[in-house]
Amino acid sequence: SEIYAEQLLEGFDAAIREKQFTVYYQPKFSVQPDIPVLSSAEALVRWIHPTLGMISPGVFIPLFESNGLVEQLDQFVWREAAAQIKDWKTRLGIAVPVSVNVSRVDMYNPDLLAYFQNLLNNYGLTAQDILLEITESAYTQDSIQIIDTVNQLRSAGFQIEMDDFGTGYSSLNMISSLPIDALKLDMQFIRSAFKNGKNIRMLEIVIDIAASISVPVIAEGVETAEQMFTLKSIGCNIAQGYYFSKPVPVDQFEPFLLEKKNCDMVQSPAGRSSQRKIYHDKHTYDAMHDPLTGLYNYSAFDMFLHDFDTEHTALLLAEMNGYDELKALEGISVANQMLRSVAVVLKENFRFSDFICRIREKEFAVILPRIHSDQ
Ligand code: C2E
Ligand code: CA
Ligand code: CA
Known about the structure:
By secondary structure, this protein is α/β, with parallel strands linked by helices. Helices cover 45% and strands 19% of the residues. The protein has 15 helices and twelve strands. The chain has helices at 2-17, 57-65, 69-92, 112-123, 136-141, 143-155, 172-175, 187-194, 201-212, 225-233, 250-265, 282-288, 298-305, 323-330, 332-349, and strands at 21-30, 37-49, 53-55, 98-102, 130-135, 159-165, 182-185, 217-219, 238-239, 314-319, 355-360, 363-368. The strands form two sheets. Strands 1-2-4-5-6-7-8-9 form an eight-stranded mixed β-barrel, surrounded by five helices. A three-stranded antiparallel sheet has the order 10-12-11, sandwiched between helices. Helix 2 crosses helix 3 (69-92) and helix 14 (323-330) packs antiparallel against helix 15 (332-349). The chain is globular and about 75 Å long. The model is unreliable at 267-280 (pLDDT under 50). The site of ligand C2E has 23 residues, from strand 2, helix 2, helix 3 and strand 6.
């Protein structure tokens, strides 16, 4: 692995020069509204190496942190993100903040604030456009210097998200005195809360404390409907994770932006279901949905089916047992109520990104895109 590390270090300059680094975006959603609303994105770097293929930042970031290269890489990522935010604003007319990761190493750069301010000037952005994620352990390891830098950034209008909370041993009463604008719970913290036996008490306590000092809580690594609905019910504000989407390249991220723009435009809350929708106006919305259950209808199903690559998409079909008898015995309104309950159960048990459809009177179909062998 030393040879591997050496190979990565030697390849760094060429990688920057030849743009082998690329930025993926992962959406974060406000989960308290009836349907989750896109609130921001996180920029996550990827290294598409010419001979080694895609390398995860978990491998090379710690390496570059130990020799200072991370500063150069981070600045590259921040510039890319700034250019992307600007592009979305001008080309799509959408302003969604993007959070970038700020390594602890960056925090010792005396010109850090000046760098960010220059960046805003160069791309015509404001401090609200870029959120800064700083890992909890940076606060606890060298708190005075870090807190000083954080204070400078915050007085210039930047919002700070404390990343990886739950790994850095900051005490709960310390949170209230730290200069932060959001608390991002670490994935392991979430995972252990939902592990066998499911102990969400710690999650509740942290969320309550954060709420009492008016700091929103972001849950990272949310993968299942159970996690998402539990977090929502205990007051978590924002969620991010595979349940919604993996980090994706720009072109695959843009549908999330367009969808938000459309949702902002469609005012009628009655027409909203709790699943992901892609529609362009109220009329198209109606044409694609079953008015009884709010699920997609057959024509939407038919359309989606042709949109997905068959290799990574799963299809699930279900028919409601005993529906005809129920309808004959109890009447149509009881049968309809039953159909609505089935729709609710379906919505709660699939991912946000799955397409749940009612394709015939008593038949349902779910399209599950992006199913990979690791899921
Ligand atoms: P992080 O900042 O805690 O980012 C979250 C990591 O969790 C990302 O890994 C993301 O892809 C992954 N993730 C998100 N949702 C889920 C989920 O539902 N399940 C699972 N299993 N994983 C999920 P990634 O992209 O590999 O990044 C790893 C770490 O590398 C990041 O952890 C961050 O510390 C660092 N990193 C990534 N990009 C940058 C960068 O541009 N600069 C710096 N300094 N660090 C970066
Ligand atoms: Ca992060
Ligand atoms: Ca983390």
